[in-house]
Structure formats: C-alpha cells, structure tokens
Design brief:
Elements: H1 4-22, H2 31-44, H3 57-85, H4 101-118, E1 128-132, H5 139-148, E2 153-158, H6 161-171, H7 177-180, E3 181-185, E4 200-203, H8 211-224, E5 230-235, E6 255-261, E7 270-276, E8 285-286
Helix pairs in contact: 1-2, 1-3, 3-6, 4-5
Keywords: S-adenosyl-L-methionine, Transferase
Family: Belongs to the nicotianamine synthase (NAS)-like family.
Catalytic activity: 3 S-adenosyl-L-methionine = nicotianamine + 3 S-methyl-5'-thioadenosine + 3 H(+)
Length: about 325
C-alpha cells in the first residue's frame, strides 16, 4: 500500500479532481457536485500509507484548499437535507433519507464504544455532553442521544444561528430529544465557564480547519474544561487527510491521549479520545477495521432549544464526514 508510484498516482488524481471542484460555480448539492465529491471520496478512502505532512508545499496548499471546499460542500449538503427533513411531521423518523446516515450510525457506535471503554464506570454515563460544531443536521448528537446515551443532555454549539434554527426544528416535535437537546449560537472561543459543566466534549472534524486553528480551540478547551472530563475529536489518516483536518496527538497539550482509532472501512474519520489533566500515558493506536456492530436501532427523538447570541465565527460541522460510499 505504500510505493512511491502509488502515492504519485493518488496525488495526481486528487489534484485533477480538485481542479474540477475549484471551478464549480456553487458547491450546493447537484448531480455534478455529488459526482465529483463521490470520486474524491472513492479516491481517498482506500487505506494508504501516504503521509500528508511529507508532501511538497504546493500539494499541501492544494490539500488545505480542498479541505475547506469539502467543508463548504458539507455545510450545503446538511442544510439541504435538514430542510427536506423538516417537511415531515416527525423528521427524526425519516433520517435515512440522508444518503450518509448509515455512516453516522457506524461512526457514532465507534465513538460511543471508545468513550465507554475510557469513561469512569463509577460515575455512570455522562450527564452533560457538548458537541462543538453541530451544524444544521446534528446527526451525531441525535444518534448518540437516541441509541447510546439515552438519559444524557446534549448541548450543541454552532456559530450560525440559521444552522441552529434548522437543527432545533428537526428535534422540536420529538417528546424525548426536544427535552434533552439545547442549541447555543456562539463561537466556542467565546464560551468559558460553561465548558466546566460538561463531562464530555465532542469536537466536529471541521472545527479548526488547519493546525493553528485547531490548536487554538484545543488550548481554549484545556483552559476551561473540568479536570478529568473527556475530549473526543475527529481526525483523518492516510489519504483521508485530503478530506479532513488531521489531529496530531502532540498538539493536545493539557490532555492525556487515551486512544487513537483509524477505521479502514467507509467510515472516513479517525477518532481521538483524550482526558483533561493527564494521569498516566497509555496511548492506543488502532489501524484496523473496527468490527463494531451497530446493534438494534429504534427511532427516538430534543425539545428545548436555547439560543445564546455571541459573535464571530468558527466552525462548520462535518458532513462529507461520511461522504463515504453509501452501501
């Protein structure tokens, strides 16, 4: 999986697709947009030993621009399907209309299992969870709240008030989730003491689009998170780093990195879990198929939507995030 020739062919193909994507007039969902991003994902998803940081500067620049284009396309894709779902009387009963919903089921199962392995059993399940960069279609929070953390309150943070309004509308008709989901319109860098209240904070893959931005967010979380609380981040490995920012465990200063997990199936994002205020270092790197079952899925549902108006932007949640191949 690692010859120089294979890496060269991969980079050439990614650059060709980037040229076509960068010339599009809009990244809103359409046949042409969907085709190009599907080609990109199919190119990047096979396991590869390529190390993005070793590539020449000109390729690094293209990769940075491509990650931002992926993020923009994701935002449009989420907004489109959030609007579509809102036309149903009970939107959460129809989440499978979203083409990558199955990927979210898989990724959320992985994240829950990893969290369950490291979260202190004596305290019971986390009571308050924050998701930073939740977007107009907060599928991770919805899936975790519906199937895995059924008594946990989820606080979703996004800088875009429209995204929060769309997300809130999806859960407002559900008697359970509407009571357990709160939406805050703010830049996480403006959130301070509230961060101490969360047992676990999830950070969407596109919060911090480059290393400097991501480190800035991590440093802020380190300053305000409660000692012993958990931070879960999404990263990318190998060629998948052409789609998403990479989280380097070395950049998680103030946290003990507990595990780094790299899926090799159609779930694109790697998962990093870390604990605030380290105790002992025991990093676990997995580069194999997760083999985690999804288990039985039953529809469930958020109701109380709080909007806190702050200023300035930061995020945009992942949604090509699972622009994996829909099976």
């Amino acid at each position: 999986m690692g010859s120089l020739q294979e890496h060269t062919v991969l980079v050439q193909k990614v650059c060709q697709i980037y040229d076509k994507i960068s010339q599009l007039e809009t990244l809103k969902p359409s046949k042409n947009v969907d085709t190009l991003f599907t080609q990109l994902v199919l190119t990047c998803i096979p396991p590869s030993s390529i190390v993005i940081s070793d590539l020449p500067n000109n390729i690094q620049k293209i990769r940075s621009k491509l990650v931002r284009l992926c993020g923009e396309a994701e935002g449009h894709l989420e907004a489109h399907f959030s609007t579509l779902l809102a036309t149903f009387p009970n939107p959460l009963d129809h989440l499978d209309v979203f083409p990558y919903y199955s990927n979210y089921l898989k990724l959320s199962r992985i994240e829950y299992n990893i969290l369950d392995q490291h979260y202190p059993a004596r305290t019971g399940p986390p009571k308050r969870v924050a998701f930073v960069g939740s977007g107009p279609l907060p599928l991770t929070s919805i899936v975790l709240a519906s199937y895995h953390l059924k008594e946990t309150t989820f606080h979703n943070y996004d800088v875009d008030p429209l995204a929060n309004a769309m997300a809130c509308r999806l859960v407002s008709t559900d008697p359970d989730l509407s009571q357990r989901m709160v939406f805050h319109t703010s830049d996480v860098l403006d959130v301070t003491d509230e961060l101490k209240e969360y047992d676990v904070i999830f950070m969407a893959a596109l919060v911090g689009m480059d290393v400097d931005e991501k480190v800035k967010v991590v440093q802020h979380l380190d300053k305000y998170m409660a000692p012993g609380s958990m931070l879960m981040l999404r990263s990318a490995h190998g060629a998948r780093a052409f789609l998403y920012p990479v989280v380097d465990p070395k950049d998680l200063q103030g946290f003990e990195v507990l595990s780094v997990f790299h899926p090799v199936d159609d779930v694109i994002n790697s998962v990093v879990i870390a604990r605030k205020n380290p105790i002992a270092s025991n990093i676990d790197h997995h580069h194999h198929d997760h083999g985690l079952e999804i288990g039985s899925i039953m529809p469930s549902s958020c109701k109380y939507c709080e909007f806190q108006m702050f200023n300035n932007p930061l995020k945009q949640m992942s949604m090509i995030e699972e622009m994996g191949i829909d099976e």
